[in-house]
Design goal:
The protein is of the alpha/beta class. It has two domains: 161 residues, Spore Coat Polysaccharide Biosynthesis Protein SpsA, Chain A (Alpha-Beta Complex); 187 residues, Tetratricopeptide repeat domain (Serine Threonine Protein Phosphatase 5, Tetratricopeptide repeat), CATH 1.25.40. It has 14 helices and ten strands. The strands form two sheets. Strands 3-2-1-4-7-6-10-5 form an eight-stranded mixed beta sheet. α1 links the parallel β1 and β2. The longest helix has 18 residues. Keywords: Transferase. It holds the Pfam family Glycos_transf_2.
Length: 360
Amino acid sequence: MISISLCLIVKNEQSTLGRCLDSVREAVDEIVIADTGSTDGTKEIAANYTDRIYDYRWSDDFAAARNFCFDQAQTDYILWLDADDVLLDEDREKLLRLKKEIKDTVDAVSMIYHYAFDEFGNVTLSLRRNRLVKRARGFRWHGPVHEYLAVSGSILSSDIVVTHRRTHVQSARNLTIFENRMRRGELFSPRDLYYYANELLDHGMDEKAADKYEQFLATGQGWSEDVISACLKLADIYSRMRQPEKQIAMLWKTFDYGEPRAECCCRLGHFFMERDRPEEASFWYRLATRLEKPKDCWGFLQDAYWTWVPHLQLCVCYCRIGDFGKAYYHNEMAGRYRPDDPHVLHNRRYLEGVLRNEAL
C-alpha cells in the first residue's frame, strides 16, 4: 500500500481548514501545510492535525508556494487540496481503496472537481484535475496565479470527486497579481492572457476582459478548452454590449475546436429566442439535450446546460409555438433535476390547465 502526503498552502483559513482536514485525515499518512501569512487561528487549527507546519514568505507566486510545500513531503505520493475543499465520505473510501490497489507504475491520478453548486445542491461547474502525484517524479507547479501542475507518464483517471465548499467572498488578490505583472512589463503567455481576462470579467470589467480574450485568441496558441471557454465568455460579453454580430461569431467559432457543446447550443437557443424565433431556438435546445456529456473533460463544464436548462427553455419554446404537450414534457424533464424550482412548479400548474382545456 502506498503512503500519501496531503499538501496545502493556506492563509487565514480558520473557517474551513478543520472541515477540510477532517474529511481526509484518515486517508493520508502525513499532512504538510505551508502558511503564507495567516493572522487568524489557522495555524492553531492546523496544529491539531499535524506538526508539519511551515511559514512561507508570500511573493505573489502560487506555484512557488505549492512547490515549496511539495518539497516538504516525505511519502510515496502527494495529494493536494485547498482549504475549502473536502472529500465526501464515499470519495474518502474510494481514496482508501486506491491506496491499496494502485500500481507502482502510476505517476499521477486525476480526480473530478465539483467546483460550484446551485441552490438545490446540483453541480453547476465541474472539471478534472491531476490531484495525486508520485513524489519521486518531482512534478512541479507553474504560473504565479491560476497555477497548474505539469505531469507526464502513466496517468490514471479516477472517479474520486473533490468537492469545493467555497465560503470566501470575491477577492481582488489574483487581479492585483496580474496587474502588477503587467506594470512590470512581464511577458504574458497565452494562458496568462486567458486567466487575466477571466479575472477582469469576474470584476465586471467587460471591455477590458474582451480585449484580453481577443488577444488570447489572436495568439492561436491557447489550449482548446480555454479557447472554447474564451469564445463563450466573449459571446456573453458581446451580448451585454449589444453587438450581436460579434456575439454569434464567437458561438460559431467554438465549433472549430470540436463537437458542439451544450453550453454553446443553449446560448444559440437563447440568441434566437431573443429574436422571437422559437423554431430555430428549439433546434439548438433539442441538440443540447441529445449531446453526451464528456466524461473526462479537463476544461470547465457548466453542468446546468447539460441537464435542466435546455429542457426548461424548450418548455418556453414550445409554449410560444403552441405545442403544449411537448412543453409539458420538457418541463417535467427539467423537474427531474430541480423538482422544487418555482419556474418548474409554475409551468406545471399553467400547462396542466391548458391541457385540460384542450381535452374538453
